[in-house]
Specification:
Elements lengths: L1 E5 L14 H13 L5 E3 L2 E8 L2 E8 L6 H12 L6 E7 L7 E4 L8 H10 L5 E6 L9 H5 L5 H21 L4 H11 L2
Parallel strand pairs: 1-4, 1-5, 5-7
Antiparallel strand pairs: 2-3, 3-4, 6-7
């Protein structure tokens, strides 16, 4: 089974905010594969289906970003999976808006959702698809910035990045992550 996790915050209030890039990617994947992400399990919205013979689980934790690891930990425990069976899609302040970067492991880099995952999974070694959201201007609060909607000037770039993040996750269901990573990271140059 492959588990694709999108990080974000639940509720209408946060729907189109920078911090919800992971949820946006899960919605794209859900549409592509026709897998509704509507079951309420593991303190998450979950969609389960088969893609090219592979069982796939789409997950949007509903614990709020800072506690995402609690929900993801429950998913892995229930299905007796390891961190190697999942990929996590999330926003990244250190990348320009609309840029993707895929990694096989790494630190939290100040991202509270990733800190929670590392804490609950007991490892930094899990696949990541980072969606760049840029940094706020000096003097602006990071927490306010990530909870804002994308301005009109950035919408097309973020939609394209979310589409590419979804495509990368879909490709991972068929190909080794290293190949996916090399392909999508090379597109960013």
């Amino acid at each position: 089974m492959k588990v694709i996790i999108g990080l974000g915050n639940p509720g209408k209030k946060y729907e189109d905010t920078r911090h919800n890039a992971g949820f946006m990617a899960i919605d794209k994947i859900s549409d592509k594969w026709g897998i509704p992400v509507s079951q309420n399990k593991f303190r998450a919205l979950v969609g389960e289906g088969r893609v090219e013979g592979e069982k796939v689980l789409l997950v949007k934790p509903q614990t709020y970003m800072n506690l995402s690891g609690e929900s993801v930990g429950e998913v892995l425990k229930f299905y007796k999976l390891t961190p190697d069976d999942l990929v996590v899609i999330f926003d990244d302040l250190d990348l320009p808006t609309g840029q993707l970067r895929l990694r096989e492991k790494g630190s939290a880099g100040g991202h509270n959702g990733i800190k929670s995952l590392i804490q609950h999974l007991g490892t930094q070694e899990f696949k990541r698809i980072k969606v760049g959201i840029g940094r706020p201007e000096p003097g602006r609060s990071v927490s306010d910035y990530v909870l804002q909607s994308f301005p009109a000037a950035e919408r097309a770039r973020i939609q394209e990045a979310v589409e590419h993040a979804a495509d990368a996750a879909v490709m991972w269901t068929r190909e080794p992550f290293l190949k996916v990573m090399n392909h999508f990271n090379s597109l960013q140059k």
